[in-house]
Amino acid sequence: MREHMLSDQHIKRIGSRLSTLSRSFNRQLSVISHYPRGPAYLLGGLGVCMLGILALPSESSNAGPALTSLPVTTRYIEPTIDSQVTREYALSQPSLVASTTQATANAQRAPVSIATPITSTANPLNWEKFEIASGDSLSSLFGQVGLNDGDLFTLLNSSAEAKVLNRVYPGYKLEFNIPATGRLDQLRVLKNPLEGYLFTRNDSGYSVDTILKTPEIRQSFKVGTISDSLFLAGKREQIPATTIMEMANIFGGVIDFILDPRTGDEFSILYEEKYLDGEFIGHGEILASRFISQGKVFTAVRFIDNEGEVGYYNAEGESMRKAFLRSPLDVFRISSNFNPRRRHPVLNTIRAHKGTDYAAPTGTPIRATSDGRVTFSGRKGSFGNLIIVKHSGGFETKYAHLNKFGAYNKGARVRQGDIIGYVGSTGSATGPHLHYEFLVNGVHQNPRTIVDKLPKARSVDPAQLQRFKSQTAGLVEQFNALAAQGEKPALLTLAQ
Length: 496
Description:
By secondary structure, this protein is of the alpha+beta class. It folds into four domains: 2-53, no CATH class; 127-212, Nuclear Transport Factor 2, Chain: A (Roll); 215-321 and 457-496, Nuclear Transport Factor 2, Chain: A (Roll), CATH 3.10.450; 334-453, Glucose Permease (Domain IIA) (Distorted Sandwich). The protein has nine helices and 23 strands. It has helices at residues 8-32, 37-54, 100-109, 138-144, 149-156, 230-236, 241-250, 447-450, 465-485; strands at 84-85, 89-91, 116-117, 127-131, 173-177, 186-192, 195-202, 205-212, 216-225, 266-276, 279-293, 296-304, 310-313, 334-336, 355-359, 365-367, 372-379, 385-391, 395-405, 413-414, 419-423, 433-440, 443-445. Strand 11 (279-293) and strand 12 form a beta hairpin. Helix 1 runs antiparallel to helix 2 (37-54). The radius of gyration is 42 Å and the shape is extended.
């Protein structure tokens, strides 16, 4: 038992050593606190182990066997940071080293690397481009490019021409030229790819130049056959939807594109395409067209009269337009016809249905069926949003349940085919549709049959008939040649 007991002297030596080690350990903790948390915990644990080892009797003690001290090596590795490259700036990093001392020395010797803008040769004048979206304002766009309302005020008040900026619309494109000075040197406002304005800074403010570009006009000839609908047939032939709609509008006085077209009906169309710098920017005018519906051949050719009015006429110079379009929508189905004894779908009572209902998706454009003047535009009872147009000759048309109105308010003049509103389901409606009424001297008529009793619109003035023939002869010849290549019947033969 005695050999396992420590002498008083030995106990004193151990106490002295523990006191020394405690002070040393406190100093180590002070150093460790400057390291990241993970290495600090590691070093702390190693320190505790060292205390435990050193507290035991040393080699000089006669209380037990000798213990070999364990060396501890600590290494701090600086984290690696890869070179970063962004869309606008390239930032180069100095080489990293494992030793903190060496890294400091290198940093002292190495030159400071500064982020440098990447210069684009494609945009040397610092143009920044935006397209106006719904809800945007000039003030917000100026803010996006680092300009303030003071800069905008200066621009708007620099000249009378600058007032065009008071009315900008979604789809307009704005291009800012802002050099390193931070001031606006030029502003380009494009209404479309061909029209716009260029504002250029001068000593007194800004000058304004009109931008007018002339596109390259190419002609395109397409032939289609209806197997489902006119629009799908046009889509298969890669004809723009707007061009198909215009063709439907041209023949709208003689063909009902909701009920008349049948499977196997054919159409041919010669129209313009616009290109700018070799890039397609939109379609142009329809020059000539033919529609074969249920064995009947309808033809139309474009003609500009002495007054500059554009119209489409058949071979005899008769206008393709009737006094009224057969329908106010281009293509969609009829959900309810004119019926004096119809049961109302909402009220469940026998109530005369004094118009025709056209089922169509919300937002479908509604066209004025003839020239006239808007006499009412607003909310009216079960009709919901309603537009009433009064025409010459005692005719009146009504368009009900609109989702929203077009650009024509009460008192405005409208032309046949103008968009006066959009399909909706306001008022007493079970779903989106247009309710269309036709009145003659205040008496409701069936919109589907009354148009057949009305005269056509004016034809070519007899005094201009010879001019009509000479102007359209080239188009007729060209169209017929293209149609012949597809083994289709000729377009037309001009009247003698």
